[in-house]
Amino acid sequence: MSRLSERLTAYNQPLLPKMVQLKYEAMAENQYRFYRGTCHLFYEDLAQADNFPQSPIAWVCGDLHLENFGSYKADNKLVYFDLNDFDESIKAPAAWELIRLICSIFIAFDSLEIGQDKALSMAKLFLKTYAETLVKGKAYSIDPRTAQGIVCDFLTAAENNNQKVILRKRTEEKKHKIVLSLADERHIKIKKPLRAELYNHIEQWIANSSDSPYNFKVKDAVFRVAGTGSIGLKRYLFLLKSTNTKDKYLLLDMKQSTVSALSPYLNNIPQPEWTTESDRIVTVQQRMQYISASLLSTTVFREQPFVLQELQPVKDSIKFKLIKDRYRDIYRVIDDMAMLTASAQLRSAGMDGTAPIDELIQFGKDPNWQEALVNYALKYTGQIKAYYHEFLSDYKGGVLEEPLKTEQLS
Q1: Tens digit of each residue's pLDDT (9 = 90 or more) over 18-48
Q2: Which PANTHER family match (predicted)?
Q3: What is the rounded CA–CA span in Å between residue 308 and residue 298?
Q4: Where are the domains of the chain?
Q5: What is the pTM of this model?
Q6: Which residue, 307, 317, 303, is CA-closest to 281?
Q7: Residue 137 phi, psi (nearest 5)
Q8: Which residues are CB-contacts of 268 (< 8 A; sequence separation ≥ 6)?
Q9: Is the distance from CB of 347 to CB of 287 less than 8 angstroms?
């Protein structure tokens, strides 16, 4: 087994074995999905980098890449475009967030066969707009009223995607009842004892949590497969039905929380003493997003922490392969992503020992770090390509196959 496969196996060992094989299958699709599934490799390497630019300590989502921006329905029922994945969130150097993102630009554009000259322009644009937003010292947000270009079209479509459309995609009628569809490849049947336990747990959450929806009952549940890096975590989808409004349903996502992949490399930065990992994720998400996602909450099931939130109404990230020939649209999206990244750091500045806004403003004014980040990203993109080809060789050779354990979805 290669050193790379040893690193992958060690990191994924705590996950559900059957799901880990699905994760490897997804990572084999292309180098961008491999990048998405190996956040831990990225930061293990970054922590050993020489002469990486110094930057203020900030709250970061931790796994910032092009598909970790997207739409979500907030508590105020409006749809927003923002950072939307906080599983790896932590207090870290602000530049760690930036380098993760601009590496994703180079890797994604290469996978889409978009020229490196355009990728380089977009990386420089991202850093320029990020810095300019910091210098303003003001956090911004994007909703259908303020969005422009393709992001406006994207949010308008999400806003118009009503509950009936969502249910039609995810459910089916069975014996005159609406249930979650097992025809959806992302949905996996749960064994009866676990399903009964989950039903009871969510019923108790609905009854006792101030973050839960009122007057709803659990009608169905499935195991859910989603994302890339998070495949292998325990994740469940619940169909909830209103007890006082006819034909009103909600879809609730419940996702296991684990330690941030950045954590082993930040021993020199004191972190808050979180009650659970889900408490960390939700707290940082509430600090960095303009408005929190609908039903965002935490729970502990079978002594393991989970994050709860309403399932998002649409496929909630922009697919660059659909706009690869539309340079103006790509420019607008990257510009928006940069502004939102800076806004999230400004919004959460000064909390629990992170740098105050004035320090972030000074960082934005400093002209000396942007070129160094671009150069690192260009060099590291070559490393990711080498990793990907090594991974493919081991994956196709059966090196990463493991005997399935019995736990699975029982």
Answers
A1: 899 999 999 999 999 999 999 999 999 999 9
A2: DUF2252 DOMAIN-CONTAINING PROTEIN
A3: 6
A4: 3-162+257-396
A5: 0.94
A6: 307
A7: 70, 20
A8: none
A9: yes
